[in-house]
Amino acid sequence: MPFTRVLHIVARRHPRSLLNKTLLHLMSASPSPSSVGTREPGRSWWSFPRWVPTSSHLLHEAEKNMVQHISVPYEQTMVEVDGHQINTIKAGRGPPLVLVHGFAAGVGFWCANIPALSSRFTVYAVDLVGFGRSSRPLWRGSTPADAEELWVTSLNKWATAVGLSKFTLLGHSMGGYISACYALRYPHQIQHLVLADPWGVPRPPALTGPDSDLPFRYKMIVKIASLGSPLSVLRAAGPWGPGLVTRFRSDIPRKFAHLTPNLSHVSDYIYHLNAQLPATGEQAFQSLTVGLGWAKAPIIDRLPGGLPASVPTTLIYGADTWMDIDAGVQLKNSLAGPSKMVVVEDAGHHLYIDNSRAFNAAVLEVADQVHHALQRERVEVGRPAAGVDEIVSIPHKRGEVGGVGPGGERPAHATPTTVGGLVEEVTGT
Asked: Coil, helix or strand for 207?
């Protein structure tokens, strides 16, 4: 019997009950403004499933509004992997570069980066399994190993399906953590590892035990946060869910203001990305975490000694990020292979859009290294060059997006100056 039919029977038998009033409210709730005009055929607004005003169709429409800002030709396909589909965007020519989004994100978030990066790379942007428009199998895991198996194995099979045997792998935030896990398992496939403001680098502090330095109220927040799916509030809010995105995360849509005057396209995309069911991606992410967003198996304890010296690594952080840059420096200095750290000025955790010009420039520097490495491989088999021992800060001209410069050109740089023997300031024009 359809669930909506059950609700009507309950409402009819208990006309004065609080339950009846609640059910009537749920079934008559106004649709989200973002859903008006895009109703799927055969679906009525009052049906119970519309309490959460989203669908795969609405997500697809919201994604179209984002990817229309990719100003170069691209292909978009659903790649079949073990019965699952992985949403994939491909653009450009050159050595392959795979972009892996962070938590609660998707391929549309790279719209300011793909045009520039595709000038030197064949860019592949994917929705991880459990996120975006990729398949969402029921999550039955419980451990970090289970979550890593889901994402690393599916990404490896995806790479095989699209014909990639070796590639540059770039992951942002949670995607950085997954990319590091991938490099640990399949180092022979990694031409260059790029971790952009990666999540999960430092060791977690004592959060809730007797040795914790946190105030009691924060210990309680940590406990509460561990009880439920982090994005479940969007679904629980029903038709008010889209408004929560606008109210509490209005900062993210504003980051895209230079690309689109219609910021509702961005907030709609964020909502529909994260209101889908099953909540596979966020539940798997919970299996990776302890406390309020710390990694149970931090990268700092795994990449050093685990990543072969043959894999060069670049870490890129936003200067104003809430991530632990000091842990990133420690990680860089502990790696066996060539390593470099880039700090992007005027950027926070979402550095790829906060300062897309400088971020793109940093990744295109990786393209130069990949090009030279491929040339060396054609001539001889040798060890990679020695690691780079500095942090590089790249300022930008705010508002320039898409290409590296206003016309897609590489920025000219002034002569580097060393500060304190550690930080190398590179001044852009």
From this structure: coil
DSSP string, 138-204: PP---SHHHHHHHHHHHHHHHHHHTT-SSEEEEEETHHHHHHHHHHHH-GGGEEEEEEES-SS-SPP
**Which residues, other chains included, contact 412 with Cβ-Cβ below 8 Å and sequence gap of 6+?**
428, 429
Q: Between helices 174-185 and 280-288, what is the axis angle to 10°?
A: 70
| CA 65/CA 265 separation, integer angstroms | 6
Gap between the Cα atoms of 2 and 46, Å rounded: 14
Q: CA–CA separation, 329 vs 321, rounded Å?
A: 14
Q: Would the CA dihedral through 224, 227, 230, 231 be positive or negative?
A: negative
Which tokens is 214 given? 């946190």
Place of tokens 């949403």: 87
* pLDDT tens, position by position, 314-324: 999 999 999 99
Ranked by mean pLDDT, the top range of 36-40, 341-345, 365-369, 419-423 is 341-345
H/E stretch holding 77: strand 74-81
Output the pTM of the full model: 0.78
